[in-house]
Amino acid sequence: MKFDMGAQVLSTLQSQSQGSSTDLGVLIRQLVQAAQPLEGKFNGAGKAAFDLFKSRADEIAADLNASLSGILGGQSGMDAAFGSGDQEQDENARTQMASANFDAARFSGR
């Protein structure tokens, strides 16, 4: 199995997730506005659920944004880990090459 990921993949993902976080709060508020014409058309449990959703829309948006913030933190940590791992791999390879005796590996007939 081969795992190949470009250097900017996690940074790009993090940037796109950040935009989604902002969009999500806006979408929740738009949903509440779009549902306004339905207000007063429900009775009983349906009305109670609708009213609860409407009254908690900001809280729901904040909770969703907080969850996305946690995801963003994880993405940031992964980006840092992959970056430092890539740098460490480069340093290890350079160290090993510096200590290798390439002259001993020549296959000349001398």
List the helices and strands and how they pair.
Blueprint: H1 9-35, H2 44-55, H3 57-99
Helix pairs in contact: 1-3, 2-3
Descriptive notes:
There is one protein chain. With 110 residues, the chain is mainly α. It has one domain. The protein contains 3 helices and no strands. Helix 2 (44-55) packs across helix 3. The longest helix has 43 residues, at 57-99. The radius of gyration is 27 Å and the shape is rod-shaped. The relative contact order is 0.11.
Shape: rod-shaped
* First-residue to last-residue Cα separation: 42 Å
Please provide the ordered H/E string of secondary-structure elements. Answer: HHH
Total number of domains:
1
Q: Structural class of the secondary structure composition?
A: mainly alpha
Count of DSSP helices?
3
Rg estimate, integer Å: 27 Å
Content of β-strand: under 5%
Mean pLDDT: 81
Any key phrases for this structure?
110 residues; 75% helix; mainly alpha
Give the gist of this structure.
This protein has helices at residues 9-35, 44-55, 57-99.
